[in-house]
C-alpha cells in the first residue's frame, strides 16, 4: 500500500513567489505597452497643438464679433436685419433728391420747348429791329436789348386805368426779379400814341411807376412798324381835333425777349406779379450764352 507524498512547505512558498513575480512582470509589460500606444509621436503632438491653438483663436474671434451682454441683446441685434434708421434716412433723402431733379429738368425742358416754339419754321416771328428815341430824346435801337432779357409793354400815357394798373404790376415784377437777379431784365415801355407821348411826357409819366423804366417813342410810322413786328394791335380814332382827348385801343401783354432779341413768352393779365417774376427768373436761369459754349 503506497502512501501520498505531501510537498514540503518550502517548496510551496517558492512556487507561489514565482507565480506572483510572473504576474507583476505581465502587468508592467501591458501598462508600458498601453502608454506607448497612447503617447503621440513628435509630428502628431505638434499637429494636435496647432489644431488646439486654431480652435481657441476661432472661438476668440467669434466672441468679439458677436459680443453681447445677454441673449435678449443678441435677439434684438438680429431682429433689425440689414436695415436701420440711417439706411432709411439715406433712402428717403436720395429719393427726394431724384424727384426734385427730374421735376426741375421737366420744367426746364418745358420752358425750353415754349421758347423754341416761337422760333419754329412757319410761325410768325415776334419782335425785330427798330429805331426809336428814349425819354431823354436820345436814339434808342433794338441793339440795346442784346445781352440780357427785356420785358416790353405797349401802352400810352393818357390811359385812364388799364395802363397804370399794368405798369404798377410791371414795377412789382421788375423789383422781384431784380432782388434775386440784379441787372437780368431791361424794362421797356413803348407808346402806342406818339402824337401825345413825347419824350418829356414819357419821362414824367414813367417816373411815377419806377425810375428804371425806359420809355420809347417816335413817329407814327415807326411806332406802327414796331407794333406790327411785335404782333401788337393798336387803334387810334379818326378825325381827332387838335387838343381833343381820346383813347387808344391796344393789346395788353408783357413780351419777354431773350438776350438775342428773340421772343420767349407773353405774360398776360392772368399772371400775378409773383407768378410772372417766377417765370422770368426761370428763363433767365436757363439761359446759356451761345458765344461761351
Automatic annotation (TrEMBL):
GO BP, sorted A to Z: cell redox homeostasis; intracellular copper ion homeostasis; mitochondrial respiratory chain complex IV assembly
CDD domains assigned to the protein according to its UniProt record, in alphabetical order: SCO
Gene Ontology CC, one term: mitochondrial inner membrane
Major location category of this protein: mitochondrion
Gene Ontology MF: a single term: copper chaperone activity
Pfam families assigned to the protein according to its UniProt record, in alphabetical order: SCO1-SenC
Protein keywords: Copper, Disulfide bond, Membrane, Metal-binding, Mitochondrion, Mitochondrion inner membrane
Top-rank taxon, per record: Eukaryota
Disulfide bonds: 159-163
Residues binding Cu cation, per UniProt: 159, 163, 250
Compartments (UniProt record): Mitochondrion inner membrane
Metal-binding as UniProt keyword: yes
Stated family: Belongs to the SCO1/2 family.
PANTHER family named in the record: AT19154P, ELECTRON TRANSPORT PROTIN SCO1/SENC FAMILY MEMBER
Protein name (Swiss-Prot/TrEMBL): Protein SCO1
Organism: Pestalotiopsis fici (strain W106-1 / CGMCC3.15140)
Amino acid at each position: 500500500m503506497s502512501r501520498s507524498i505531501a510537498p514540503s512547505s518550502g517548496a510551496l512558498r517558492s512556487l507561489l513567489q514565482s507565480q506572483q513575480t510572473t504576474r507583476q512582470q505581465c502587468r508592467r509589460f501591458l501598462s508600458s505597452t498601453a502608454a506607448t500606444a497612447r503617447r503621440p509621436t513628435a509630428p502628431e503632438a505638434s499637429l494636435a497643438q496647432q489644431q488646439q491653438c486654431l480652435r481657441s483663436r476661432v472661438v476668440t474671434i467669434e466672441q468679439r464679433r458677436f459680443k453681447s451682454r445677454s441673449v435678449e441683446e443678441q435677439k434684438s441685434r438680429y431682429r433689425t436685419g440689414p436695415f436701420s434708421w440711417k439706411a432709411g434716412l439715406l433712402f428717403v433723402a436720395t429719393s427726394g433728391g431724384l424727384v426734385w431733379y427730374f421735376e426741375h429738368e421737366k420744367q426746364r425742358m418745358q420752358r425750353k420747348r415754349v421758347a423754341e416754339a416761337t422760333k419754329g419754321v412757319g410761325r410768325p416771328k415776334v419782335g425785330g429791329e427798330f429805331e426809336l428815341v428814349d425819354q431823354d430824346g436820345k436814339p434808342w435801337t433794338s441793339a440795346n436789348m442784346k445781352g440780357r432779357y427785356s420785358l416790353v409793354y405797349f401802352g400810352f400815357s393818357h390811359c385812364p386805368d388799364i395802363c397804370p394798373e399794368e405798369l404798377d404790376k410791371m414795377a412789382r415784377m421788375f423789383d422781384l426779379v431784380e432782388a434775386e437777379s440784379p441787372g437780368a431784365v431791361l424794362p421797356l415801355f413803348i407808346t402806342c400814341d406818339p402824337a401825345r407821348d413825347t419824350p418829356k411826357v414819357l419821362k414824367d409819366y414813367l417816373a411815377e411807376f419806377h425810375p428804371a423804366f425806359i420809355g420809347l417813342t417816335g413817329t407814327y410810322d415807326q411806332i406802327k412798324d414796331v407794333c406790327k413786328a411785335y404782333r401788337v394791335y393798336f387803334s387810334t380814332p379818326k378825325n381827332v381835333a387838335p387838343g381833343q382827348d381820346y383813347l387808344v385801343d391796344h393789346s395788353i401783354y408783357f413780351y419777354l425777349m431773350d438776350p438775342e432779341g428773340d421772343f420767349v413768352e407773353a405774360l398776360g393779365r392772368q399772371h400775378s406779379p409773383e407768378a410772372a417774376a417766377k417765370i422770368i427768373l426761370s428763363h433767365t436761369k436757363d439761359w446759356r450764352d451761345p458765344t461761351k459754349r
